[in-house]
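#struct-pred
JK: can someone run the complex with flavin-adenine dinucleotide? inputs below
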Amino acid sequence: MEVLSVPPPSWMTEDLNMLQEQTRKFLAHELVPHLEEWHDKGIMDRSAWTKLGEAGLLCAGIPEEYGGAGGSFAHETIINHEFALAGLDSIGAPLHSGIVAPYILNYGTEEQKKKWLPRLATGELVGAIAMSEPGAGSDLQSVRTTAIKTGNGYVLNGSKTFITNGQHANLIIVVAKTDPTQGAKGTSLVVVETDETPGFRRGKKLKKLGMDWADTSELFFDDAKLPAEALLGTEEGQGFVQLMRDLPQERMIVATSAIGMIERALSLTIDYVKERKAFGKPIIEYQNTQFELAECKTEATIGRVFHDNCVERHLKKELDTTTASMAKYWLSDLQNKIVDRCLQLFGGYGFMDEYPISRMYRDARVQRIYAGTNEIMKVVIARSL
Ligand SMILES: Cc1cc2nc3c(=O)[nH]c(=O)nc-3n(C[C@H](O)[C@H](O)[C@H](O)COP(=O)(O)OP(=O)(O)OC[C@H]3O[C@@H](n4cnc5c(N)ncnc54)[C@H](O)[C@@H]3O)c2cc1C
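RT: done, structure tokens with the ligand placed:
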């Protein structure tokens, strides 16, 4: 599905080419055949996590000494791009491998890394990050969940909502106030192993506009007892600093799925307009169809080149939050525009659920909302003016 005329990214290697091929085959054989069933059930099978772990497709960027595949963010990017090309829009694995595991790798103690990372890599643990609350999404400083030190541990109270992997997750990084009298400085990240935490409760899987089989959920903590070692790292009050430092990577993960979904939309649409006939000829022969797709392909190419450059900078640890915010905002906006234009070329079939473009249209919408809304991205970019 190479629809864009772009050279391979500067960071592409033989090893990454092999990973790409291996991932493509694995997804086509092991996950894609289940998509309809998951779509109908509204949730992915838990066993898919184990399969991904066995195939080495979880935590590809985590060092081997902690059970990962010993790759880099380039490995994560290749896998995420393949998820998008395969139509696995709802999968929570990029968040598990590219956000949850790196928090533990970057800020955990040696003991915490050894305890959690190998089990995240096999899929025994499914990761989630619980920041958003009913009353606090963009404004994370106002989270009300508290983790109060008592004796030799913490007591966690509060509720979280919109949490990706919420039904399957059994390792959840929770943003909580360890000092509720403070804003950002009183915020910490605590790690909840749900199977060992009395007082933890899952709410319902939320019904959504798109991403039908993503188990986005509410979570509740009612006097949930955590051991002292649940605090990520050794020092309280570091939560905000930790969140801010890892933001560029989170934004690039959304940018990668956006460009992958754009490429898939274009590929499906080009195939369709070559086959569908109106007034006696394939609709690709109408100049409007050609111009629509020529414009989409041009913008997608610009997006792909920018994306690849951002990944290159991130691999060199040179990607700043401003540029990562541009990539998240611009590519997710572009995804929504291109998928909409592609859907139009499918006519009425584009509105039918059984046509992938229809699901892609619904799935695209949230990309402008989560991982920091696109308005918040612009707030961040504007600070650099
Ligand atoms: C499917 C899905 C999955 C998600 N997964 C997760 C997850 O795994 N973990 C997690 O913690 N959260 C998750 N979220 C939550 C998501 O990150 C939040 O919804 C998002 O950050 C926005 O917060 P909010 O919904 O409270 O909106 P609000 O913050 O209330 O924003 C409402 C509107 O106001 C605008 N706005 C807010 N502040 C400003 C400002 N300063 N300037 C200009 N405009 C502003 C916003 O851009 C938006 O348009 C998920 C959400 C969805 C829908």
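RT: quick notes.
Residues 66 and 114 are 6 Å apart (CA to CA).
The mean pLDDT is 97.
JK: thanks, will look after standup
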